[in-house]
Fold this protein.
Amino acid sequence: MKAGTSADTNPPYGKKSSFRQDLADTAQSSYQKLIAESARRKIAREPNQLLSALLREAVAGYLSSLGR
């Protein structure tokens, strides 16, 4: 999801009061892919470079692909 949508997964700093915090263990290969995507976005000067932002996007994308 892109920033600014009605179900924004990565709102601006300080705007996550309705969010729930959780922890997730990830496989080393998944973690390395997250790091690579984070670096790619940083080099390209794209938004949402943090691992937490990437994880929120991935979860939202996966859940929306379920079609429920």
